[in-house]
Amino acid sequence: MLGFGNKQSKDTAPSLTGRAGGGSAPGPGSFSIAVMGGGSWATAIAKMMLEKNDEIWWYLRRQDRIDDFIRLGHNPAYLQSVHFDTERIHFSADLNEVVENANTLLWVTPSPYLKGHLKKLKVRLRDKFNVTAIKGIVPDENLCVSEFFHQVYNVPDENLAVLAGPSHAEEVALGRLTYLTVGCSDEEKAQAFADMLASNYVKTKTSRDVIGIEYASVLKNVYAIAAGICKGLKYGDNFQAVLMSNALQEMNRFLATVHPIQRSIFESCYMGDLIVTGYSQFSRNRVFGQMIGQGYSVKSAQIEMEMIAEGYFGAKCMKDINRHLHVNMPILDAVYNILYERIAPTVEIKLLTDSFR
C-alpha cells in the first residue's frame, strides 16, 4: 500500500502524452484514454484526464448530446461550468470505435445501464486496461463491475482497476482538494495510472484490494440512503454519527467475509468515501433517502431527482448477495425493507435505533 503523495522525479516520470493509438493494454506510462459515460463523474474525470493528456476519446451514447457539447464547449447536461477544449476530444456515439482506438477505458456509466451498453460491443475488452469508476453493482448479475468484466468478458486481473475515494464530481470540477485510490493487482500499472491522475488538487495512492474497494463503494451508497432517510425523518446529528459508526462496522464485517485480506477500514477509500457520501449536500443517494424519509414514494423521488441513485439498485443486489453470506447487516436490511418491501420508514428506522448501542 502506498501513501498519498506522488513524489516522483522528472527523470523517472512516465511520458503520458495520451495520443490515441489503440492497441493492447498499456504498459506503465503508455495510456491512451477513453472516458465511457456522460454524467457528472464522467465529466469530472475527463477534466482530470485532459490535464495530463494531449487528447482523449469520449463515448457518449447520444449524438445530439455530442453535437451540443461541441457547440457549447461544455457538457450540456452535467457540470455545465466546466469548459473543455473540444479540439482535444474525440467524441463518438459508437462504442466500438472508442474501444478500438484507446487502450485504457474509464467506465463511468451508471451500473444499471452497463450491460445495455456492452451488448453493442464487438471489440475485445480483455486486451484493454479497464478502470471502473462505477460506484455500483451490475443488477441481475449481482457482481461488482470488475468481477463482471472478469467473468463475462475474460478480462485478466492485471487489466482491471478501480478508481475510488471521497470524490464528489462537483468538487473535482471546482478544483477542490481530492484524494483518490487506484486499486489494481498489477502495482506498476496502478502506480503509473495514479501518477497520471495526480495534480495540484488531486492526491493519489494505490491498493491491491480491488474487490473490497468496489464493495465498499456499493455499500456506502446504501448507507447514504439510510442517512438521508433519517434526515428526512428529522433525526439529529447525534444519531447520524451513531448511524455512520455502525455503518462502518457493518461494512467491515461484510468485507472481511466476502474478501478476507488485511486492510484498514479507516482508509479514505472505505471510511472517507462513506463519510462524504453520508453527509455531503452533493450526495444524490443522501438526497434520494431524504426524500423517502419525507414521504416520497420511490418512483416519485426518482422522477424528481432526474439522476441515478446507485444505492437503490445496490440495496437489492447486496441483499441478494448477503442471503448466501449471512453477515449481520441491519442497516442494509432496513434500507432494503423501506425501498423494496414498502415498510414505513418511521417503523423500520425505529427498529434500527433500538438495535444500536
Structural commentary:
The chain is an alpha/beta fold. The chain has two domains: 33-208, Rossmann fold, CATH 3.40.50.720; 212-355, N-(1-d-carboxylethyl)-l-norvaline Dehydrogenase, domain 2. The chain has helices spanning 40-50, 63-72, 95-101, 111-118, 145-153, 169-173, 187-197, 210-232, 237-258, 268-279, 284-293, 298-305, 310-325, 330-340, 345-355, and strands at 33-36, 56-59, 89-92, 104-107, 129-132, 137-138, 143-144, 160-164, 178-184, 202-207. It has an eight-stranded mixed beta sheet, sandwiched between helices. It has a two-stranded antiparallel sheet with strand order 6-7. Helix 8 runs parallel beside helix 10 (268-279) and helix 8 (210-232) crosses helix 13 (310-325).
User: Briefly, what CATH class of the largest domain?
Assistant: Alpha Beta
| Biggest sheet strand line-up | 3-2-1-4-5-8-9-10
User: What is CATH's topology name of the largest domain?
Assistant: Rossmann fold
Number of separate domains? 2
- Terminal Cα separation, in Å? 33 Å
Net shape: globular
Number of helices: 15
CATH architecture of the largest domain: 3-Layer(aba) Sandwich
Could you report the average pLDDT, rounded to the nearest whole number? 91
Radius of gyration: 20 Å
What structural class should be given to the helix and strand makeup? alpha/beta
Number of strands: 10
Main beta-sheet strand count, sense and barrel state: 8 strands, mixed
- Percent helix among the residues? 40-55%
Low-confidence stretches: 1-21
Any idea what the CATH superfamily of the largest domain is called? NAD(P)-binding Rossmann-like Domain
- Portion of residues in beta strands equals 5-15%
